[in-house]
Amino acid sequence: MPYRWTHGHSAPLAEQAPDPAPVWTLDIWPHRSLSPEGFVAFFGITFLMVLVPLFSVIGSPVLWGLLPFVMGALALTWKMMRHNARDAVEKTEELLIWPDRMTLVRKDIRKPERRWEANPYWIRVEIHKKGGPVENYVTLSGAGRTVELGAFLSPEERATLHDELLERLARLGQPSQ
Fold first, then answer.
1. Does residue 127 contact residue 161 with C-beta atoms inside 8 Å?
2. Of 11, 52, 75, 120, which residue is most buried, by most CB within 10 angstroms?
3. Domain membership flag for residue 51
4. Which whole-number Å values give the CA distances from 76 to 29, 79, 108, in the listed order?
């Protein structure tokens, strides 16, 4: 699953808080369907498949006419895939849980960071199985606002995350519904 719970971990954002060690830290990131090894394999196979038709024109002036376009297409594919991989790393959600507060920090691509903070005692964790914009829409309500959690997770992952969050809040001794 593209999220990870950490117990008693001191995250970089938490160091700015009065208590540098949250009880729970949740890091959520988008699915990354292509690992670095997968990228190498994909690009190697693509390169070989593009070169196969060029073998028929080796030694003729047509090769020099086609080569810039083929290499340009490969370079553009490389650049776009690396740009996409860089953007995927920039989009994250971090939920920090202390006994007296919860902080959600959402980082989007080329946008300012958004923060939400409330007291866990007063937070309502809800899952909207059908009524939300997506199936199993998870929201946190508190401090006069309602925010979404796990925007880029699958419906099954959001349902699991909802249950895990309720369990962790119960361990803190906080009512969450």
1. no
2. 120
3. yes
4. 26, 5, 24
- 105 forms bridges with which residues in the sheet? 94, 115
What's the pLDDT tens digit per position in 26-40? 999 988 888 889 999
Q: Are residues 150 and 105 in the same domain?
A: yes
Count of the separate structural domains present in the chain: 2
Strands 114-118 and 124-128: unpaired
3-state secondary structure of 102: strand
Residue 3: its H or E element: strand 3-7
CA dihedral (127, 3, 166, 25) positive or negative: negative
Q: Are residues 65 and 109 in the same domain?
A: no
Q: What is the largest CA-CA distance in the chain?
A: 77
Q: Is the dihedral of CA 47, 52, 53, 58 positive or negative?
A: positive
Q: pLDDT tens digits, residue range 65-89?
A: 999 999 999 999 999 999 988 887 8
Q: Is 34 exposed, middle or buried (0-12, 13-18, 19+ CB in 10 A)?
A: middle
